[in-house]
Amino acid sequence: MPIDLGQVDWLYVAVLALFALVATGVANLLSFNHRGLAAVLAAVVFAGLFVFWTYYPHHLPLPTSVTVQKSPVTTVVPAAPAVPATPQRPRNPITDITPPNPAR
C-alpha cells in the first residue's frame, strides 16, 4: 500500500471528518434539502470551521496540520568577518572601465 497508515494523524482526520459532518448537517438545515445549495453551504461552513480550528489562537494542544509538528532546529550562523579599518585597493592596476576606442 503506498500510504503508510502508521504515519496518519488519525485525530486530525477524525476532527476534519466531524467538521464535514457538522457542516453538511447545518447546510441541509439551512437549505431546506436543496442539494446544490446544501453543497455550497457545506463548503462555506467547513471552510469557516477549518480556518477557526487551524488559525484561531485558542492556545490548546490541538493538531493544526497533517504534518508532524517538530521543535524548531537551531542553527549556528558563523560570525561575519571583521571589516578592516581601511578599504583594500583592488589588485588590478587598471581603474578605467571604459572600453578602448578601436578607431585610434
Describe, in plain words, how this protein is organized in 3D.
- The structure is a single chain.
- The protein is mainly alpha-helical.
- It has a domain at 16-55.
- Helices cover 41% and strands 0% of the residues.
- It contains 2 helices and no strands.
- The protein has helices at 10-31, 35-55.
- The longest helix has 22 residues, at 10-31.
Rounded average pLDDT: 78
CA-based gyration radius: 31 Å
Low-confidence stretches: none
DSSP helical segment count? 2
The count of strands amounts to: 0
* Pattern of helices and strands: HH
Query: In angstroms, what separates the terminal alpha carbons?
Result: 77 Å
Class by alpha and beta content: mainly alpha
Tell me, briefly, the overall form: elongated
Which bin fits the share of residues in helices?
A: 40-55%
The largest sheet is: none
- Beta-strand portion reads under 5%
